[in-house]
Specification:
By secondary structure, the protein is of the alpha+beta class. It has 2 domains: 32 residues; 100 residues, Lipocalin (Beta Barrel), CATH 2.40.128.370. The chain has 1 helix and 9 strands; from the N terminus they run H-E-E-E-E-E-E-E-E-E. The protein starts with a helix and ends with a strand.
């Protein structure tokens, strides 16, 4: 094999490698771009006064409300619209700027990482890794 042929073959392999790498990067952006990069989150629950703070999941089917108080308790309302509701009383804590709702057994019931906030709503990443919006009912 002469030098020129080797160079062209190597160049061809290099182009294929670059194409594969670019395709992989584009696929990564498409699959991961739908969830914000939580490494760059600047917001923190610790900057929000959670005493007498109530939020409701913005969802056409599911009812999910959290009413926080200053004693680290949270009244949780869960169920479906036009269906039965349950209302346990759990506790809440902040750890590294993340809000944890803790059930009676000391297990994490919900984990809410704050992504965005305006006067009327919050965008959070929940325990399942899903980005959801809560309406702020009072604060």
């Amino acid at each position: 094999m002469d030098g020129k042929h080797f160079f062209l073959e190597s160049k061809s392999k290099m182009i294929e490698c670059i194409k594969t790498l670019l395709l992989s990067c584009m696929l990564n952006v498409v699959l991961c771009g739908c969830i914000s990069n939580t490494d760059n989150i600047k917001l923190s629950w610790s900057k929000i006064d959670l005493s007498n703070f109530t939020i409701r999941l913005n969802d056409p089917i599911i009812e999910e409300w959290y009413k926080f108080n200053r004693n680290k308790l949270v009244s949780v309302t869960l169920g479906t619209k036009d269906g039965e509701l349950m209302g346990p009383l759990y506790s809440w804590k902040l750890k590294s700027g993340v809000l944890f709702i803790i059930d009676d057994d000391g297990e994490i019931f919900e984990k809410l990482t704050l992504i965005d906030k305006n006067q009327n709503s919050l965008i959070v990443l929940n325990k399942s890794g899903k980005k959801v919006r809560f309406d702020i009912l009072n604060n």
